[in-house]
From TrEMBL:
Belongs to the TrpC family. This is indole-3-glycerol-phosphate synthase. The keyword Lyase applies. Its EC number is 4.1.1.48. The gene is trpC. It catalyses: 1-(2-carboxyphenylamino)-1-deoxy-D-ribulose 5-phosphate + H(+) = (1S,2R)-1-C-(indol-3-yl)glycerol 3-phosphate + CO2 + H2O. GO terms for biological process: L-tryptophan biosynthetic process.
Length: 256
C-alpha cells in the first residue's frame, strides 16, 4: 500500500510538471518569503506541543470529515494553541490538495507541514512554492540515498524535514540522516496496523537535542499522557481533531 500511495503521488506530481516545468516552479519557490522556524516552534517545553492535521479521509479510516474550508479549520487550530498545522496534500486516498496547503498558508502564521508521499525534488519545490515550512519524509518509502538527497534539499530551501519512522531500524536510519525532527508513526503504512507502544520502545534511540514527535492513534487525553510519559515533545493528531470540537480538544491536550 505504501509503494502504491507513493507511486500515485509521484504520478500526480508528474502531471502537474507538464503544466509547470521545474525551472518555473523553482523560481516560484525561491521567491517566497523565508520559511518559518519549525524547530523553534516545536522545541521541548514544559507542556506537550501539538501538530494539528487537516485530514478529510484516509485509506484505513475512510471519510472522516468534510472540511470545505481547510483555512477555517487551520485558523481554529492556531487559536486553540497548536504549534504547527499539518496539511495532507495527497489527493487519491486522503482527499487533500496543494490548494488546501495554499489556503492554510494564507490563514495562519504558525509553521505548516506538507504531508504527502514525497519521493522527488519536484514535490519538495511544490511544498515551498505553496508556502510549506516543513516537509514529511517517510523512511519506509524510500532508499537511504534518496532520503538523504531530499533531506538536504528541504534544508537548503530553509524548510525542516519531519522524518517519519515505524521501527527501530527506521529510527536508526532517521538519525543517520542527521534529522533534527523525528516522528514515530504508530500506524504501519503498509498494513495500517496500529502499534501504540512503538513510540515508547524506540524513543530512547533518538538522541538528546532531536525533537521527538509521536504520530497517530491519539484519540483522547490519556493517549497524549501516555506519549508524554514516554518522552514525546509533540504529538501529531488528525482524526480526533477533525471529528471533535478542535478548540476544546486541543485545550485538553495542551494541559498535559
Ligand atoms: O488521524 P491520526 O490517527 O491522529 O493520525 C494523524 C497522522 O499521524 C497520520 O495522518 C499520518 C502519519 N503519517 C502519515 C503519513 C502519510 C499520511 C498520513 C499520516
Amino acid at each position: 500500500m505504501l509503494q502504491e500511495l507513493l507511486a500515485g503521488s509521484l504520478e500526480d506530481a508528474r502531471a502537474r510538471r507538464e503544466l509547470k516545468p521545474y525551472a518555473r516552479l523553482e523560481a516560484e519557490a525561491l521567491a517566497r518569503p523565508a520559511a518559518l522556524d519549525a524547530l523553534e516552534a516545536l522545541a521541548p517545553a514544559d507542556h506537550i506541543k501539538v501538530i494539528a492535521e487537516v485530514k478529510r479521509a484516509s485509506p484505513s479510516r475512510g471519510d472522516l470529515a468534510d472540511i470545505p474550508e481547510p483555512q477555517a479549520l487551520a485558523a481554529q487550530y492556531e487559536s486553540g494553541g497548536a504549534s504547527v498545522v499539518s496539511v495532507l496534500t495527497e489527493e487519491r486516498k486522503f482527499k487533500g490538495s496543494l490548494a488546501d496547503l495554499e489556503a492554510v498558508r494564507k490563514a495562519v502564521s504558525i509553521p505548516i507541514l506538507r504531508k504527502d508521499f514525497i519521493g522527488d525534488e519536484y514535490q519538495v519545490l511544490e511544498a515551498r512554492a505553496s508556502g510549506a515550512d516543513l516537509v514529511l519524509l517517510i523512511v519506509a518509502a524510500l532508499p537511504q540515498e534518496t532520503l538523504q538527497r531530499l533531506h538536504t534539499l528541504i534544508r537548503e530551501l530553509g524548510m525542516t524535514p519531519l522524518v517519519e519512522a515505524h521501527s527501530a531500524d527506521e529510527v536508526a536510519r532517521s538519525v543517520d540522516l542527521g534529522a533534527q525532527l523525528i516522528g514515530v508513526n504508530a500506524r504501519d503504512l503498509s498494513t495500517f496496523e496500529l502499534d501504540r507502544d512503538l513510540f515508547g520502545r524506540v524513543a530512547d534511540q533518538i538522541p538528546a537535542g532531536v525533537i521527538r514527535v509521536a504520530e497517530s492513534a491519539v484519540l483522547d487525553v490519556s493517549d497524549v499522557e501516555r506519549y508524554r510519559a514516554a518522552g514525546a515533545d509533540a504529538v501529531l493528531v488528525g482524526e480526533a481533531l477533525v471529528t471533535n470540537d478542535p478548540i476544546a480538544t486541543l485545550s485538553s491536550y495542551l494541559s498535559v
